[in-house]
Amino acid sequence: MNDPSRSLRIELRQWRQFVALAEELHFGRAAARLHMTQPPLTQAIAGLEVALGVRLFERTRRSVQITPAGAALLPEVREMLARAQALPELARAAAAGELGRLRLAFVSTVGFDLLPRWVRAFRGHWPQIALELIEATGDVQLDLLARGEVDAGFLLHSPGFVAAGLTQTRIASEPLVVALPESHALAMSERPPLKSLLTEPLVIFPRRILPSLYDTVFALYNAAGRVPQVAQEAIQMQTIVNLVSAGLGVAWVPQSVRQFQRPGIVYRPVGWPKGRVVPACETSLVWRPDVVSPALNHFLHFAREQAVTGLPSGAHVQKAQ
Q: The whole model's pTM is what?
């Protein structure tokens, strides 16, 4: 009966008939269970065997017995039918955004506190949406969004920054603080003065990854008539902090980075000139408005509910006293 060139065209109805007969081992009872007469069931089973090229049942006038091939197929067919039965509900859940995959890019600063809290809370609301988290710098995120390889991203930027071609919602705002080597003389001050900090070597990220925030930092020096002495560039905030602890210079970092504690480093708010607006940075969720899946819609709604204007530590845009 075996013909490898035979094209299989087997409907789910035939597999249900196979299961019914395998469980009843009687054509009459199986036909009654399927609400059909016995001759069509006999023909359907024979047609299934022809299509498969194997005998599934041994028949005599008195009995029906399943063959080893049929017994091997039975659990697989039961699982296939169960999965097929679940497909309509899965389709409805996917269309409603209750099921699916959500690809989120994020900068390292979000990973210190906000991202773990949000992921935990979102999974509690939508456990069937699989979250794929991708750590990436701002420039890489914009490229991934443009190519459709992520659904949304958490970007760090200066206030007023607008990502071209993207929709964004601000989720946090916080001041910049300075990271200093623990052994540095300025580390002894609760609020090291800005004037003294501007003479120190600087550890900073490359402009291409956070241009708006890079320009904000450089503007501090330019306003004082100084040119930053860049001692070292590094991409990740953790690496920048590690280089500061090694004594390579000082770094301007978001206040949330203070949660990254390591030996040899201290974080200090800056002693700003009176009335000076303290430079801040913001974190926004960005996405392409032309590609919004139901799952992303749920996350955007969740993000708007969770969005804050300051961090738990009291971060906010303020004026120096």
A: 0.67
